[in-house]
Design brief:
The complex is a heterodimer of chains A (270) and B (269). Helix content of chain A is 77%, strand content 0%. Chain A is mostly helical. Chain A folds into two domains: 44 residues, no CATH class; 218 residues, MetI-like fold, CATH 1.10.3720. The radius of gyration of chain A is 23 Å and the shape is flat. Chain A starts with a helix and ends with a helix. By secondary structure, chain B is of the alpha/beta class. Chain B contains seven helices and nine strands, in the order E-E-E-H-E-E-H-H-H-E-H-E-H-E-E-H. In chain B, helix 2 packs parallel to helix 4. The longest helix of chain B has 15 residues. Chain B is globular and about 60 Å long. The chains are: A mainly alpha (270), B alpha/beta (269). At the A-B interface, helix 8, helix 9 and helix 13 of A face strand 5 and helix 2 of B.
């Protein structure tokens, strides 16, 4: 039918115009297009050092069934889960106390520590908390907390004064105002920042797990494969890291939509 | 209570911010209006050009900011404290994470109501403001008019005699404007002691719904341009002018004359 064709072409054309929104189907079409293009590029392999899909998926099967990749993945997930929980608790506490002027320099200082990087901190952290699993949790928590605090403290600082005044004229106590405006009112932003920091932590995981390989994990696994220059295995592990990372990201986005449905309503699509 | 008793007394209020004098010697009173057999609240319009300090004065009356000099008192000289005066801010803030019903219930709970009492009063107010069908929506899902009504209803969860409204007529089409005026009159007349102070620069709308208007502005210089801190330059008693409590007040020649007169004064402030 001609009108449908015209409609379809018009939708495709719209996607090439600046600042336009497209319908879900057209959006999915472009996702499919770029994914297919990436896969074709992978099959054609412009770089010699990049193993083909067959080699990588073969290596993945071997790693999963013969080298215990499942338990290693579980070890990594437990580590990131533990570190993320600590990060969220510490960071939210630090961000919420920015309502007190006395605490702001401390929060500011924690935020500035994000420029330190983790590599040089291994020795002092080992001296503070010992080695092994505790060291990895501490390093990851430190790395994520500095970024989390930076973003979340900014969210709290930027709450418009009108929101506080609104509750004051309603007769709310300062405690209730902080609960409604600073804590519950920013929950969607806190979940969004948790999502971003989960991605940061997940990106750091291979490096942190490499510090102490005794407990295993995907990081230890990838370093062992790297040492023997098993490229197909390295890419297979990277593929798993990417897939699990995307799954975690999707889960966090779903949780935000579930807990804070109002946040999606305020988002302007274009 | 006798007619003419002072319900709100703003005396000699002055405010300086960052070395700039914003308000100086601002004084006005709101008196009780009594009409035989009719519950009559008070509506006072605070008119003034943009940036003259109307909202600053509103914040002082609400107890949100202290004045540098002067005082604001309520009935029988009682000081007005933060939380005793309701304020509907310009952009009608509501708790974005709570549904409309939840917004009203929370306001009730914050003022010591039990859950059942808060829910019952919230449901009653939503019905009165025509928002029952919107009770389960989030503020982001409301239109501007619905949001304004929800914000006013939220302020009424705790019975208060004073309600201040910052620019309630801005951006409204003529039909919506008529609805808002009707709503404000209804809110004012819910109780004899109810007093609404409307901050606006919409002269016609202010004269239609108020019983008194105050013109806040700067002193005009030799060139006729307003300079320096603002004060109440003129107050008009619309009851004495015969313009208050009339349905078709816009049709009266005196209405057009007064509006023209106020607009003329407005330009020089």
């Amino acid at each position: 039918m001609v009108p449908t064709e015209v409609g379809f072409l018009a939708r495709i054309k719209t996607a090439f115009l600046p600042n336009r929104s497209v319908d879900r189907l057209t959006g999915l079409l472009f996702v499919g297009f770029w994914a297919a293009l990436a896969f074709v590029a992978w099959v054609l392999r412009p770089f010699e050092s990049l193993p083909g899909p067959a080699e990588v998926f073969g290596a993945l099967s071997t790693l999963w069934w013969k080298h215990g990749m499942g338990p290693e993945l579980f070890t990594t997930l437990a580590l990131i889960g533990h570190a993320l929980l600590l990060t969220v608790v510490i960071s939210l506490l630090l961000s919420y106390v920015t309502v007190f002027a006395a605490a702001r320099p401390l929060v500011e200082a924690v935020s500035k520590l994000r420029f330190l990087g983790l590599t040089g901190l291994v020795v002092p952290f080992t001296l503070f908390v010992g080695g092994g699993y505790t060291l990895k949790v501490a390093l990851l928590t430190f790395g994520m907390t500095t970024f989390f605090v930076t973003s979340m403290a900014q969210v709290v600082v930027e709450i418009p004064r009108e929101q506080f005044d609104h509750l004051r004229v309603l007769g709310a106590s300062e405690l209730r105002i902080n609960l409604e405006v600073v804590i519950i009112g920013t929950l969607d932003r806190a979940l969004d920042i948790t999502r971003q920091n989960l991605a940061i932590g997940w990106a750091l995981i291979t490096m942190v797990e490499g510090i102490s390989r005794a407990e295993g994990g995907l990081g230890a696994m990838i370093l062992n494969q790297n040492k023997h220059f098993h490229l197909a295995e390295v890419y297979a592990i990277l593929l798993v890291i990417l897939a699990v990372g995307l799954l975690l990201d999707f889960a966090m986005a779903f949780l935000t939509r579930l807990v804070c449905p109002h946040a999606a309503l305020e988002r302007v699509r274009r | 209570m006798a007619a003419g008793e002072v319900l709100l007394d703003v005396q000699g209020v002055g405010l300086t911010l960052g070395g700039n004098a914003i308000l100086r010697d601002c004084s006005f009173q709101v008196v009780d209006r009594v009409r035989q057999g009719v519950v009559t609240g008070q509506i006072v319009a605070l008119l003034g050009p943009s940036g003259v300090g109307k909202t600053r004065l509103l914040r002082i009356i609400a107890g949100l900011d202290p004045p540098d000099v002067g005082r604001v008192t309520g009935y029988k000289g009682a000081p007005l404290l933060e939380g005793e005066v309701g304020v509907v801010f310009q952009h009608y803030p509501l708790l974005r994470h709570r549904r409309v019903l939840g917004n009203l219930e929370t306001a009730g709970r914050m003022n010591g109501m039990g859950a059942a009492e808060a829910r019952s009063r919230a449901a009653h107010l939503l019905e009165r403001f025509g928002l029952t069908a919107r009770a389960q929506l989030y503020p982001a899902q409301l239109s501007g008019g619905q949001r304004q009504r929800a914000a006013i209803a939220q302020q009424l969860m705790k019975p208060k005699s004073f309600l201040l409204l910052d620019e309630p007529f801005s951006g409204l089409d003529p039909s919506a404007l008529g609805d808002v005026i009707k709503l404000l009159v209804e809110v004012a007349n819910m109780d004899e002691l109810n007093t609404l102070v409307i901050v606006t620069h919409d002269i016609e709308a202010a004269v239609v719904c108020s019983d008194a208007v105050m013109l806040l502005g700067r002193e005009p210089n030799a060139l006729g341009k307003g300079v320096g801190p603002a004060k109440i330059q003129r107050s008009v008693d619309l009851v004495a002018e015969g313009l208050a409590y009339q349905d078709d007040v816009e049709q009266l020649p005196r209405f057009a004359e007064l509006v023209r007169d106020l607009k003329d004064g407005f330009r020089r402030l």
